[in-house]
Amino acid sequence: MSKRIRDRDGMYDFAIVGAGISGAATAHELAGRGHKVVLIDQYGPASMASGWTLAGVRQSGRHPAELPLAQAAVALWQDLAERLDGPTHYRQVGNLRCARTDAEAERIKAIVGEHQALGLEMELVSGNALRAMAPMLSPEVICASFCPTDGHADPRSTVTSFVAAAERLGAETRFGQKALALRVENGRVAGIETDDGFVAAGQVVLAPGVYGNDLIAPFGYRVPFEVMSATMMRSVPMPHRDMPVIGVANGDTTLRQEVNGEYRIGGGHEVWDGQLALDPWPQVRPRARSVYELIERYSALVPELADVKLDQLWCGLIDQTVDALPVLDILPEAGGVVAAMGFSGHGFCLGPITGQILADLAEGRTPALPIAPFAMDRFGAAADGTGVELHG
Ligand SMILES: Cc1cc2nc3c(=O)[nH]c(=O)nc-3n(C[C@H](O)[C@H](O)[C@H](O)COP(=O)(O)OP(=O)(O)OC[C@H]3O[C@@H](n4cnc5c(N)ncnc54)[C@H](O)[C@@H]3O)c2cc1C
To answer: Transmembrane region positions (predicted)?
Structure first.
């Protein structure tokens, strides 16, 4: 167990901004290492991307730089519920990525080859083998990649379990409190100015999702990401099927069945127009056209779902960087604060390992996994971009 960085009354060793999966996992990890931790969120646990997400726990389709993190995360997901003593509803049911055209089939074959070369268990399936895995697929699907060690989990349950476990380890939570600015004294981060006073801390971890740049901009930093809005929907509970997560080559449609039988369906994205309703949790409303197009796509992929009754529609915001990789780094010009943002639609699966990496960085240790590809300074003068596709 590590020694506390500082232990003065009223001062935390670590303040973490953001109670999505990244911040909640970090709070749990640091509290478990014996530190005095506070987790701050302007709304509450899983109130933004970590609640809006499709929540695929996927290694396939990852950038080679991200694959080791995804594999390490999947190893942690196996017994996460036991370690948190709370539900995650993790299911390792596999992930099928389908080809609907000859061009997509070529793409899928290439992905399978690349990932096999990187050591990921993955195969190309078609014909009877594919229909046996997913009889509900349209006959139009030509072939698919299959990764048996992928799966999914329930996002709100998982984040809530991380928070509850962190609290049992002594972490404090401040929900409904907004971080306004980092305070840096003598070149070192000293805490956070919030809308409910100053929170003194020996180190600060920022995991604020799409709002990340607001807190680092005063120090000259900006992660070049575009905020994209992805359309999501959920059905009423349906009879349970043994099925993998089903997606497509270009990531514009993904669906899975939740443990209670509801289908969670997502895909398609556009640049966010900045509108967010609070009722009381943050909500981004989908456009009718985007909903219509997603229904058309998923019904073409899984025709039996064309008639399913929809219970909920929403949009999720994605911090899409120019290279579709996150920033996991220390920012020296911001007093050495630890920053995690720009997960580009991949951060749910990574959550458990992100927590360990951010805890290591916050403690001043070198993480065991290679994180150089996630350095802030890789961007140079890169501009924002919208052309990167989502992997679902
Ligand atoms: C539609 C959709 C589908 C996705 N599908 C997948 C998938 O299948 N698999 C996968 O791995 N990933 C997926 N992702 C991505 C994944 O959900 C995110 O990368 C991940 O949840 C990010 O977690 P986070 O904790 O970093 O950020 P968030 O969950 O966004 O949490 C950030 C938190 O910070 C808080 N905050 C921000 N600013 C402040 C402030 N100033 N003061 C206090 N609090 C603040 C917010 O309220 C929020 O709760 C998807 C995302 C979306 C939107």
So the answer is: none
| Residue having the nearest C-alpha atom to atom 22 of ligand 1 | 347
Please tell me if the CB atom of residue 212 comes closer than 6 angstroms to any atom of ligand 1: no
Query: Which atom from ligand 1 is nearest to the alpha carbon of 23?
Result: 25
**Domain coverage including residue 284:** 93-149+226-321
Give the residue, by CA position, lying nearest to ligand 1 atom 8. Answer: 56
Strands 151-152 and 277-278: unpaired
Ligand 1, atom 18, residue with closest C-alpha = 347
- Residue 22 CA: nearest ligand 1 atom is 25
Confidence of residue 388 (pLDDT cuts 50, 70, 90): very low
Residue 313 counted as domain residue: yes
Counting the structural domains of the chain, the total is 1
Of 124-128, 210-214, 323-327, 378-382, minimum mean pLDDT range: 378-382
User: What residue type is assigned to position 194 of the chain?
Assistant: T
pLDDT confidence of residue 9: 60
Does residue 85 fall inside a structural domain?
no
pLDDT at position 176 is 97
With bands split at pLDDT 50, 70 and 90, how would you rate the model's confidence at 162? Answer: very high
Residue type, 368: A
**Ligand 1 pocket, residue 286 CB under 6 Å:** no
Does residue 155 sit within a domain?
A: no
Within a domain: residue 142? Answer: yes
**Average pLDDT of span 207-223:** 96
Chain center to CA of 154:
12
- CA distances to 76, 88, 187, 284 from 47, rounded to whole Å, are 23, 16, 33, 12
CATH value at residue 145? 3.30.9.10
Question: Which two structure tokens, joined as six digits, stand for 273?
Answer: 């127009």
* Burial (CB count within 10 angstroms: exposed 0-12, middle 13-18, buried 19+), residue 275: exposed
Report ipTM (2 d.p.). 0.99
Q: Can you tell me which atom of ligand 1 is nearest the CA of 43?
A: 47
211 lines ligand 1 (CB under 6 A): yes
Residue owning the nearest CA to atom 15 of ligand 1: 345
Band (pLDDT 50/70/90 cuts) for residue 10 is: confident
> Ligand 1 atom 31: the closest Cα is on which residue?
20
Check the CA dihedral 336-341-346-352 and report its sign: positive
